[in-house]
Write a structure and sequence with these properties.
Number of strands: 0
Order of helices and strands: HHHHHHHHHH
Number of helices: 10
Strand content: under 5%
Oligomer: single chain
Helix content: 55-70%
Structural class: mainly alpha
Largest sheet: none
Distance between the termini: 15 Å
Radius of gyration: 16 Å
């Protein structure tokens, strides 16, 4: 799978991304001196799709990572999804389009209403964890750990791959990785997630 330059990933070395992953107890294989693009190509060559999902979740900038979670969740969203699930995804998408504090806190509320059980809910959590504070807006700021967005994004993408048709999880992961690669190279990722 061709990765391109992954221009949105600002880390010069893959190890910078691996440090964030390690902070979240995600141990990914080390490839000393590899750029993010080379690192991802090597993971894909080994069919290490789960590792690739984690690497991209921690490597993408927060807003792009949340967008990837949204696109992946939307690709697996059923028309029969309960209203709180659809609302959580809509709230996460709204934050990506306009990353205000009001929309970030709204995403958190929708994630709670969706009971943190779906890709949509975890996309909304990722939006909330991307912000400057985890505390209520009227209290002193409590900055989130830098790795939390990646945790929520990898959770959303992984759930999207396995929640329905689990036998197709690796195929879905590959599609979602293509989505992330497109996003990392400045695209919208929408066509790749649907498999077109």
């Amino acid at each position: 799978m061709e990765t391109g330059a992954l221009t949105k990933i600002t880390a010069r070395q893959a190890d910078e991304v691996l440090q964030l992953a390690r902070a979240a107890d995600r141990v990914l294989p080390a490839i000393p001196g590899a750029t993010p693009a080379v690192y991802l190509q090597q993971l894909m060559a080994k069919s290490a799709f789960n590792d690739a999902v984690h690497f991209l979740a921690f490597g993408l900038p927060k807003r792009e990572a949340v967008w990837w979670a949204c696109v992946s969740a939307r690709a697996d969203l059923r028309e029969s999804a309960p209203p709180p699930v659809a609302a959580a995804l809509a709230a996460a998408e709204a934050w990506v389009y306009r990353p205000t504090e009001e929309l970030r806190y709204a995403a958190w509320e929708r994630a709670k209403e969706a009971k943190f059980e779906t890709p949509s809910a975890w996309a909304a959590v990722a939006a909330f964890w991307s912000g400057p504070s985890l505390a209520p807006p009227d209290l002193p700021a409590v900055p989130p750990s830098p790795h939390l967005t990646g945790v929520a994004v990898s959770g959303a993408v992984t759930l999207a791959a396995v929640q329905t048709e689990a036998a197709l999880a690796d195929q879905k992961r590959q599609r979602y990785i293509k989505t992330a690669i497109d996003i990392a190279n400045g695209g919208s990722g929408r066509n790749e997630a649907k498999g077109s």
